[in-house]
Amino acid sequence: MWVPLITPFKDGAVDIQSYDRLVEHYIQAGADALFPLGTTGESPTLDDAEIDLVIERTVAVARGRVPVFVGVGGNSTRKVEKELKRLQRIAFDGIVSVCPYYNRPSQDGLIAHFRNIAAATDRLVLIYNIPYRTAVNLSNDSMLELAEVPNIVGAKDSSGSLAQSLELLARKPKDFAVLTGEDALYFTMMANGAEGGILAASHLMTERFIEVGRCFAANDVAGARAAWAPLAQFVPLLFAEANPMPIKYLLWRQGLIASPECRLPLTRISDGLAKRLDAYFEQRAAA
Asked: In this structure, how many other beta carbons lie within 10 angstroms of the beta carbon of residue 82?
C-alpha cells in the first residue's frame, strides 16, 4: 500500500514542516512505500527547485525505511530524459512515469517513450496508465512488451476498464507488479491478484487500507471484506470534487497539515462538501 503524497502549501509556498510530518506519519502508520510528486502531489504546479526540495525531504525523512518512488513523466520523451539526468544526484529508489498526455501517441510511440525512459535511468520504473487523464490508453499487449525491459518492474493501473485491468492481472509475468490506482477498486483488484495499490484515499483511514492488504496476504478474504466495508462508502466522498482538495481539507482538520491550500487551477472544496467531510470528521472523533 503506497501513499501518493500530497504537497502541502502555506501562503503560496511548499510547507516543508507539514510535509516532513506527513512523511513520518505514513511511515509510522505502516505504508509500504511513498510516492511524491504524482497528480495528488500537484506536481504540474511545482517548479524545479520545489521538486528537488520535495524529493530531498522525502528521502531525508524516510531514511531508507521505505522505498521512495518519484513521479517523473511527461509528454516529451526528451524532457523526461533530461529530468532524470537532473535528478540523478538524489538517492531515491525508482520512478512512476505517466503515459504521455495530450499529444496522443500511438502504441508504438508509447512503447518507444517508455523504452527510452528506462534506458535513461538505472532506477526502477513503474508505468502509470490513466487514460481518462492522458487521453491515451496503453494496451495490455504494449504493457506486457514493456514488462520485458529489466528495470520496468510494474504498473500503476488506472485504465478505467475493469475488464482491461483483470486481463492484465491474468496475463502479467510473476515478476511484474500491478498496483491499482483506482481507489474504489482496491478490494476487487486485490481479490484478483494485484500486488497492492497506490491510493490517494489512503491519506485517510490509512490503517484500514493497510488491514485490507494484510488480510489478503494472509488469504483472509472475509477479514479483507470487513476492513474494506467502511472504505467502500468513504472513498467516493474524497473524489466528489477534484483530488486532492477534499483530502487536504481533512488532513488540515486533523492537524496534519497547516493549511488546506492548493495551487491554481485547483482552489478549495465547496461549502456543501466541507459540511459532509466535517460530519465524517466529527463522527470519527467521537468513535
From this structure: 13
- Give 197's strand partners: 180
Catalytic residues: 128, 156
The model carries a pTM of 0.95
Tell me: cis bond preceding 244? Omega within 30 of 0 counts: yes
Asked if 258 contacts 9 with a C-beta cutoff of 8 angstroms, the reply is: no
Q: Could you tell me if 94 and 126 are in contact, meaning their C-beta atoms sit under 8 angstroms apart?
A: yes
DSSP state of 198: B
Residues 6+ apart with CB under 8 A from 146: 111, 114, 115, 118, 127, 152
Q: Quick one: cell of 6? A: 500530497
CA distance 119 to 77: 12
Handedness of CA 53, 205, 240, 268 (dihedral sign): negative
Cβ neighbours, 10 Å, residue 30: 15
Which cell numbers in the block locate residue 221? 478474504
What CA–CA distance (Å, rounded) separates 286 from 164? Answer: 41
CA-to-CA separations, 236 to 183, 231, 233, 273, in angstroms, rounded: 9, 9, 7, 12
What does the pLDDT profile of the chain (287 residues) look like in tens digits? 999 999 999 999 999 999 999 999 999 999 999 999 999 999 999 999 999 999 999 999 999 999 999 999 999 999 999 999 999 999 999 999 999 999 999 999 999 999 999 999 999 999 999 999 999 999 999 999 999 999 999 999 999 999 999 999 999 999 999 999 999 999 999 999 999 999 999 999 999 999 999 999 999 999 999 999 999 989 999 999 999 999 999 999 999 999 999 999 999 999 999 999 998 877 776 66
